[in-house]
Amino acid sequence: MSARFEELDWRPTPMGVISLRRRRDPSLGTDVFEIKLDDEFLMSSMWTAGEIALAEFGLAQVPGDHLDVAVGGLGLGHTAQAVLAHSRVRSLVVVEALAEVIEWHQRRLLPLGEQLTSDPRCHLVQGDFFALAGTASGLDPQQARRFDAILVDIDHSPRHTLNPTHASFYRPDGLSRLAKHLHPGGVFGLWSNDPPDDDFHAALTKVFTETASHVVTFPNPVQGGESANTVYIARTPSLPM
């Protein structure tokens, strides 16, 4: 049986103190892994439905095989794992700002670490996703290329960002810079902890030809009832036939 609580790692970073902890939840009968930045919870293995749905909704809109996918935000790895579960995926680049989070996966302190680091399709990149998305060279430091899908789970929502500098990404100019890294007909997906946002949806429609928002509900064993996330999906224009 696991200890009721264990802090697996604790590091000061330029963004604040980041920590990884594991606790035993007796009501669920399982270990819960949590990442905190200072006193703020960034993610918990108790809530993964939205992260998995981001991959499922995104890839469902991409036809064909030999797909090249990028994910912004590694976290506990559930979006990356859901992407790799699709045999159609040829390559996956995961951009994570915090080297410590990548190291936790490499050291296999997290349950998905072994799977992600041993899959030859998966490449973990330490970097600022938002800065890379605004450059001509793009999200893969090894080669400038486009992707069939780019899926992002970093900020709490377009309105509630971890850093004020991220806000411009969610406006039409920032989304336009991101869209340049997608193939024609490529898909952009975004996870949000807030309900669907009309202003952000309007920004999407100025850049992408097809847009949709999906509300993902899941049981909340802490508060009871259900909680919800939003997954936005948008597609770039396809080449004319």
In this structure, how is the largest beta sheet organized?
7 strands, mixed
Strand order of the largest sheet: 7-6-5-8-9-11-10
Write down the secondary-structure element order: EEEEHEHEHHEHEHEHEE
- Strands, count: 11
Unreliable stretches (pLDDT < 50, length at least 5) are: none
Number of helices: 7
- Give the % helix: 10-25%
Strand content: 35-45%
Q: Rg to the nearest angstrom?
A: 17 Å
Average of the residue pLDDT scores: 93
The structural class is alpha/beta
Features:
241 residues, alpha/beta, seven-stranded mixed sheet, four-stranded antiparallel sheet, 7 helices, 11 strands
Please tell me about this protein's structure.
The protein is an alpha/beta fold. It contains 7 helices and 11 strands. It has helices at residues 49-60, 78-84, 99-106, 113-118, 129-133, 172-179, 198-205; strands at residues 5-13, 16-25, 30-37, 40-44, 67-72, 89-96, 122-126, 147-152, 182-192, 210-219, 226-235. A hairpin with a 2-residue loop joins β3 (30-37) and β4. The chain is globular and about 55 Å long. The N and C termini lie far apart (60 Å).
Topology overview:
Elements: E1 5-13, E2 16-25, E3 30-37, E4 40-44, H1 49-60, E5 67-72, H2 78-84, E6 89-96, H3 99-106, H4 113-118, E7 122-126, H5 129-133, E8 147-152, H6 172-179, E9 182-192, H7 198-205, E10 210-219, E11 226-235
Parallel strand pairs: 5-6, 5-8, 6-7, 8-9
Antiparallel strand pairs: 1-2, 2-3, 3-4, 9-11, 10-11
